[in-house]
Design a protein that fits this description.
The protein has 400 residues and is an alpha/beta fold. The chain has helices at 37-40, 49-59, 72-83, 96-113, 134-140, 143-146, 164-170, 194-207, 277-290, 295-316, 339-348, 371-392; strands spanning 16-20, 23-26, 31-34, 89-93, 121-125, 156-159, 175-180, 183-184, 190-191, 210-214, 238-241, 252-256, 321-327, 330-335, 351-352, 354-356, 360-363. The strands form four sheets. It has a seven-stranded mixed β-sheet, with helices on both faces. The termini are far apart.
Amino acid sequence: MVSHLLPTYSRADLAFERGEGPWLIANNGERYLDFGSGVAVNVLGHAHPALVEALTDQAQKVWHVSNLFRIPEAERLAERLCAASFADLVFFCNSGAEAMECAIKTARKYHAASGHPERVDIITYEGAFHGRTLATLAAGGQKKYLEGFGPVAGGFIQVPFADLEATKKAIGPTTAAILIEPIQGEGGVRVVPPQFLRELRKLCDDHGLMLVFDEVQTGIGRTGDLFGYMRSGIAPDIMALAKALGGGFPIGACLTTAEAGKGMTAGTHGSTFGGNPLATRVGNAVLDVVLAPGFLDNTRKVSLLLKQRLAELKDRYPSVIAEIRGEGLLLGICCVVPNGDMVAALRNEKMLAIAAGDNVVRLLPPLIIDEAAVAESISIIDRACAKLSQAAKPATPAAV
């Protein structure tokens, strides 16, 4: 069959017709344990009753009215996000890249509004991934994503991962902000040490810079806290969210303090679809579940169990697994074998996972998983590792 989709993805020859919790059912009836969650999106798994109810109820009322009018569901979602975070203000959009674009504009506009329009440069880190727009690709700085798209957007200065001295040296009179992911997802599930984040907060305070966190992948409970920054004991000035915020429905958000957002006045930014009634109704339903008493406690408990069991597999299969990384339910298997082989081996055993940089396989299960799902996942990974380990062994010389 000839596909008319632009071939920008290397798709597996696999399609799904429905989902149940952490499981996806293919159109041939086979069940797959979904530890990819649509790349950290399906935070409540598939067909969660609260999301289904919210979506279907709102779909019978009003989907879209534009931001020329008040949207009560958006106002409520913004209020709740601010109450649960450092922020005072929220801008809604449709994706992580859009949320990051807003964050970049907000950081630069702050300085322009403060009388320093020359302060436009943003310090970023090697291995980062901030989106697929021209500006966010430039912020990430990865050549494989930038090649062929013409001049690279200016205003981004990249330094080595978690390198404090390099960060200090990069700060100058045109520096506007420091941008970082609390955990690099695409970059290989590399956890930024909390002490380093605290040092960045101090640097920003000392130099009058904006501290911007990209929490597109870490936000809404993925790390075991509602937001990844919370484990560090400090807060950013600006933060980008998306992915899990809609539990599968497209929505992104840029959160900011009142001071950091003072330059973003009427007409400075916009989004046709951003924050429409349908998206924000679903976003509120996600928060209803994630903010319920005990929900994130269970996420932390299950994530600890999963990480412990993965460590056992690392010890059992040193020819396959080099390291277990991550926090909460954003975990990475750093592989000895090619990570693509691991992803394929897991899929053959009916489990979905996602490759990342640094030869890592990401495990991003929905936050609703229980101990039974953990046990099932470990059994699957064990079988996959056993086969990969056997394949990696050198052939035994024939007897003479």
